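Working notes for the structural subgroup meeting. M.R. asked for a predicted model of this chain before we commit to crystallization trials. I am recording the input and output together here so anyone reviewing the notebook later can reproduce the run.

Input as submitted:
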Amino acid sequence: MKPFYALLGVLFIAVTVVFFVLMGRNSGEEQTVRLRTNVDEIDTSYPTSQPQQVETRVIETERVVPVEVPVKVGSTSSGEASSSSEKVQRKPAGMNQQQSQGNQPVEVIQRKTISFNGPESEQTVVANTPAEWADFWEQHATGQPPVQFNPDKETLVAIFLGSRNTGGYSVELDSVRQENGSIHVYYKERKPGMSQAVTQAFTTPGLVITLPKTTRQIVVEEKQS
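Returned structure, recorded in token form:
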């Protein structure tokens, strides 16, 4: 009897072990199926966060350079329009460096050459009134002053070489210029040539000119030939 019960106990244990093994397999397969089902049921339509690509454009702009355009403001005596600029001033065509610094020619209004009745000594005079001119002439020459001028508009300049033994001498005006704030009168002395026929008498060569009215200093200079 004892062997029978022992065998029966072994069989019971074996059946129990097999039962639990089978139950474990079924549970594992069920969990695997459930796991797969849960994975399949995941909503794949849920938006995933992805970096957005932003299109950037570089806009090229042209660099604007201010250009100053001359504006017509008037016309010259020749009819050509003159121009001026608020910032930038251009030199007139042909103006040299001396002219741009204020060295410019001065207009000569009257010009009178004298050969007789002038001062017998070398003289230079600047007169702003007829009274000054008449007083000089009375002291250094004879007769009436050879030139009359308007003291409101003109300044008189006279150059005398003094007495010469013959004719053929003269005072030639070279130029009159405004230089460094002063008026410069340049002249040359002309002498007779060796074979030139001249007056055989004493002469007093001179030159009288009038310039636009000025209060500037007047400098008279002989220019060598």
